[in-house]
Design a protein that fits this description.
Elements lengths: L4 H9 L10 H15 L2 H4 L3 E6 L2 E6 L2 H7 L5 E4 L3 E7 L5 E6 L2 E9 L2 E10 L2 E7 L4 E9 L1 E7 L3 E7 L2 E9 L5 E20 L4 E21 L1 H13 L3 H6 L1 H11 L5 E15 L2 E15 L5 E10 L19 E11 L1 H11 L10 H13 L3 E10 L4 E9 L7 E9 L1 H12 L3 H16 L1 E2 L5 E7 L5 E3 L2 E4 L13 H14 L37
Antiparallel strand pairs: 1-2, 2-4, 3-6, 4-5, 5-8, 6-7, 7-10, 8-9, 9-12, 10-11, 11-13, 12-13, 13-14, 14-15, 15-16, 16-17, 17-18, 18-19, 19-20, 20-21, 21-23, 22-23, 23-24, 24-25
């Protein structure tokens, strides 16, 4: 259903508001309006035909002419049965739209791995909604299907996908600042996918399967610019040749600017219940699994957000050391993304500067300058509050990273742990029989020594790293700035004297400043950590 309905939406988006009387003249006017966005060829070859059907217009789609055109290229062919949709004007100026897009078709093409074949079937796939020409969007709509199957076959891999009954809804309203605000919700039952890989050259031969009794998708949007985007589509149809686009690039630029910011905000989430993966090494699962994505439109301070959440995690134990089982996470909540992203300035300057009559339309110098200006505004990589936990242990993290010099980052990350002693106990037990864990155990103790105990008993580490290479933990300097490379080093007596002076200073960890920044001692000054190589304190700075 999700693969077919977008075509219905796009075609209906360009439907004009016609007179209430449904007649042949109205059918011609509807055809002319659709041709503005999709070209006349779809009508000329017979792919789309519009006619009067009672008190509605019938849009009949026949894929045979398209298949015949593509058959000239032997590497691509498909077979899809015809379908139709009905659209009828309402007294309030909106349109009723309905369609049955059930299908059973196939597709053959040649991909990077050779010939590929796809069979697709969607049963009893129906849609009905109310379309508003003033908003260029559906103000309401519902869809449903009885089931879906898809099979793909290629040289080294096969996949079978199936789903049971599904439903979908869509709603839209006029946005306060132009465009539309919308919500979309979809739910599919009994989702399953089986993959078989057979690649002897790379030593891969295994089956795997994914299943979930319920998959749902939710999306929201604010300020989505439907009409300006349709105007861009119409421009592309009216200016098919490069010469026309170049001649009318002033109009093209104006349309691009009118479409900004494209949307104010879009968010979407996939959710799986009782998610399971069967593999040759065992079964992985989660009672709840979700992935989310959100993005601001083209703005001067945009945000991008990602999230992965899972609860009730299970993994096969047979391939893991026994000591790790108590530490395996059962719940994760990871949040990351970006902030202070200025795409608005970049987009507007690029639109203003490009010239399609030149090759390239934008010079490398302009592009490099635009990127430098973008980085100068310090966009951030953000780690939102994230947790990984099981019954005894919880690790929480958050922080951010910027690139002040364009390459090496400044970063601050806060890590706090509840139940750190449980981790130490597990490593201590593992050290009795595992040499690697025996080496890791002292490190775990040293890390604990750098931690700050919070009122609730959790241990916290605030880690600051700078572009100069320095590292602090809870305010204590573990590593000073990296050595500054001097291009004149080794070219004269003064360079030799500087080297010897630096080496002499390094022989005395107490010469230089108290904080170790004068090139002699990067330790914290705390006797418990000075010179302790396991913790990294006492590192010497080479000038």
């Amino acid at each position: 259903m999700k693969r077919v309905l977008p075509l219905v939406f796009v075609l209906a988006l360009s439907a004009p508001a016609l007179a209430q009387t449904v007649d042949n003249q109205g059918a011609k006017q509807l055809s002319d309006n659709l041709a503005r966005y999709f070209g006349k060829q779809i009508f000329d070859i017979g792919f789309l035909k519009i006619s009067v059907d009672g008190d509605a217009y019938k849009l009949a789609f026949d894929f045979k002419p398209v298949a015949a055109l593509l058959a000239k290229d032997q590497s691509f062919k498909f077979d899809v049965p015809p379908y139709s949709m009905l659209t009828k004007p309402r007294k309030d100026g909106q349109w009723d739209v309905s369609a049955d897009t059930s299908l059973a078709g196939s597709l053959d093409f040649t991909g990077p791995q050779g010939p590929q074949h796809i069979d697709l079937s969607i049963s009893n796939n129906k849609f009905s909604g109310v379309y508003d020409p003033g908003l260029a969007a559906f103000v309401s709509g519902t869809g449903s299907m009885d089931g879906m199957t898809m099979k793909t076959r290629e040289a080294k891999q096969e996949a079978d996908v199936s789903a049971g009954a599904g439903t979908a809804t869509i709603m839209a309203t006029k946005a306060a600042n132009g465009g539309i605000d919308f919500t979309v919700a979809q739910k599919v039952l009994s989702f399953a996918e089986t993959i078989k890989v057979n690649d002897p050259e790379n030593g891969l031969s295994f089956p795997a399967s994914i299943s979930s009794p319920e998959l749902s998708v939710d999306a929201t949007g604010k300020g989505f610019k439907t009409k300006p985007l349709l105007d861009l589509l119409a421009f592309a149809v009216a200016n098919e040749s490069d010469e026309k686009v170049k001649a009318n690039q002033a109009e093209f630029k104006s349309l691009l600017l009118a479409a900004l910011p494209v949307w104010e905000r879009i968010d979407g989430t996939y959710r799986f219940k009782d998610f399971a993966v069967e593999s040759p090494v065992g079964k992985f699962g989660a009672t709840q699994l979700s992935t989310a994505f959100g993005m601001d439109g083209v703005s001067q301070s945009g945000k991008v957000d990602y999230a992965i959440k899972a609860s009730g995690l299970t993994v096969p134990h047979q391939m893991l050391p026994a000591w790790t089982v108590p530490l395996l996470p059962t719940d994760i909540d990871l949040n990351f993304g970006g902030a202070d992203i200025d795409l608005d300035t970049m987009a507007k300057k690029a639109i203003e500067a490009f010239d399609l009559n030149k090759n390239p339309p934008l010079t490398d110098e302009f592009g490099n300058g635009l990127v430098a200006e973008f980085l100068a505004k310090k966009p951030k990589v953000v780690l939102g509050h994230s947790t990984v936990k099981n019954g005894d242990v919880e690790v929480a993290m958050e922080g951010e990273m910027t690139f002040p010099g364009g390459e090496k980052p400044d970063a601050t990350v806060t890590v706090d742990v509840a139940g750190y002693d449980k981790i130490v106990d597990a490593l201590k037990e593992a050290a009795k029989s595992d040499e690697q864990m025996a080496q890791a155990f002292p490190f775990a103790l040293a890390v604990k020594g750098f931690g700050k105990t919070l009122p609730d008993g959790r241990l916290e580490w605030v880690i600051d790293t700078k572009a100069d290479g320095s590292v602090k933990v809870n305010g204590a300097m573990l590593k000073g700035p990296d050595a500054v490379q001097d291009d004149s080093a080794g070219q004269g007596d003064n360079a030799d004297q500087d080297d010897s002076a630096g080496q002499g200073a390094n022989q005395d960890g107490n010469s230089g400043g108290d904080d170790g920044t004068n090139g002699t001692d990067n330790s914290t000054g705390d006797g418990s950590t000075r010179g302790d190589s396991s913790g990294g304190a006492g590192a010497k700075l080479q000038p």
